[in-house]
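Record type: monomer structure entry
Structure origin: computed from sequence
Chain ID: A
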Amino acid sequence: MKKIIIFSLFFLGQSIFAQKLALVKEKAKIGYIDTSGTYSIEPNFDTSKSFSDGLAAVKIGKFWGFIGKDGKMEIEPAFSNVKDFHDGICMVESDGGWYYINKKGEKLTMPSSDKLYDFNEGLALMKVAGKIGAFDTNGKVIIPAEYDVIKPFNNGFAKVSKKGQWGIIDTTGKVTVPLEYDNIGEYVNGITWAQKGDAYGIIDGDLFRELEGADDIWDFGSQSITYARKNGKVGFTDKTGNWIIEPKFDKARAFNQNLAPVSVGGKWGYIGLDGNYVIEPAYNDAEVFSDDRLAPVKGKSWGFIDPSGKLVIPMEYDITVSFGFNEKNKGFNDGVSRVKKSGKWSFIDTSGNILGNKWFYNAELFQN
């Protein structure tokens, strides 16, 4: 019996700390709800931030501390300013200076840097004599300070620049794409776009293929297809650097679920991989389908359609950009979308139900 109780408590704890919570403001106080719309942490705070890496910053009096997902104080309020936790480490300010702490609130010794940066994918950037490098959570320098620019890492890769030329490195500092381009996109599934002189093209691995006539290319999304512009019109290219859908649209957005929103003459619809309309242009605006197989579309306000074009959630909301770097789509992620109506915020599920049937003065995105 004792073992059963111990295991039950263990899995209950794991469940609590794995769940995503959203910061909400009800009247003058801030609390946190789970994805059922139920308060996990009652609204008791005047000032606080969203959860990140399992902890949320809260301000008590003049000082900031951190709570866990059970609402208990994990790091006592002692800081005049704080950032968010990433990779178990957070930047905090005390006595006029910034430094790093761990989840025990202990000050960490890290390599000297002219400016402190948040950790991202296990690394923090460092600036030394105007050059940028990076070190890991143990304070070991992984990338020497030799670059002019290092952009944030995304899925293990980052754009870097030296003497005006751009390339891609991984989190070990290995150069994945040589620094020989005038501009470069995000590296997604081994593919990106780049500009070399007047030529725009696709890099698959380390091979650059010019896309005929292109004067702009956008980042790849979840599918190995992206959109590009030629002579003022937008079409689509695959990773071979060939036009697979000729440029004939005024505007476009990324493919997902084998559908892409496109605009001609101010009206938006959706095309399939053959470039033909699957959903006829009838909307004032339209966004990418999410992995929940719903896409936001706009008449006077926003609603949601399924891949057949059926309106499954009425057009009566405002929406905002959603969760994080890899989920830039507006609308649904993980079965939930943040919406606004009559000046208040809430969340809806994929059936259009309001979570907990509650509206808030403010509601931030669900975070771990």
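Annotation 1: Helices lie at 2-18.
Annotation 2: The first strand starts at residue 22 and ends at 26.
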